[in-house]
Design a protein that fits this description.
With 121 residues, the chain is mainly beta. The chain is built from one helix and eleven strands. It binds copper (II) ion (CU). Copper (II) ion binds next to loops.
């Protein structure tokens, strides 16, 4: 007897929230095996990077004069971070052997709020 009443409650077109959207909104793609990451006003210009392939060479541009930044791609194999260097400065970091399907977190060791995700596809 209760079944009919419960079935009536099922109307309405509420779309379920989609967590972890499948779109590319918010992420920038590393193309050609390179990516330029800019640190300015103690922020990265990108907090989400997608990569197809298992290697990428970052160019890190520190545009904060007198403020030290580095790039630490936590858990990446080999040399995974640069030295802390005050701006204005440009560094490079070449990563190889990244794991497809894994998301790596990158951060500046001095500024924990400078954090982002590198998604290896
Ligand atoms: Cu920093």
């Amino acid at each position: 007897m209760l079944v009919a009443a419960l079935a009536l409650a099922g109307c309405g077109s509420s779309k379920a929230d989609v967590s972890g959207s499948t779109g590319s909104s918010g992420c920038r793609a590393a193309t050609g095996g390179t990516f330029t990451l800019v640190a300015k006003n103690t922020r990265w210009d990108t907090s989400c990077i997608t990569l197809s392939g298992t290697s990428v060479t970052f160019t890190i541009k520190n545009e904060d004069r007198g403020i030290a930044h580095n790039l630490n791609v936590m858990g990446a194999p080999g040399t995974y971070k640069t030295d802390l260097v005050p701006g204005i400065a440009t560094q490079t970091l070449a990563l190889k052997g990244l794991t497809p399907g894994k998301t790596y977190t990158y951060v500046c060791d001095l500024h924990p709020s400078m954090i982002g995700e590198l998604k290896v596809q």
